[in-house]
Amino acid sequence: MRSFVLIVVLFSLMGCATGEKMSRLKEGMAKSDVIEVLGDPDGFQRSGEYEALNTITGL
Q: Which domain of life is it from (predicted)?
């Protein structure tokens, strides 16, 4: 699977994220690695080849 686009995630989570978990995210991480850091998403959105995970709780 194509590398997860971290920028989309950062903008999606910016308002509710804590520093420790967010600081562990790096550009180009695989989707599975992002889920390992943040936990299972509460939802997701797709637009073309991009996907954003929505995480409301658990941060």
A: Bacteria
- Is there a domain that residue 1 lies in? no
Question: What's the CA angle centered on 33, arms 31 and 38, to 5 degrees?
Answer: 95
CA 59 – CA 47 distance, rounded (Å):
25
The model's pLDDT over 9-37, given as tens digits with 9 standing for 90+, comes to: 665 655 555 677 888 888 889 989 989 98
Domain tally, the chain: 1
Task: Confirm if 52 and 44 have CB atoms less than 8 A apart.
Answer: yes
Question: Would you say residue 59 lies in a domain?
Answer: no
pTM value is 0.59
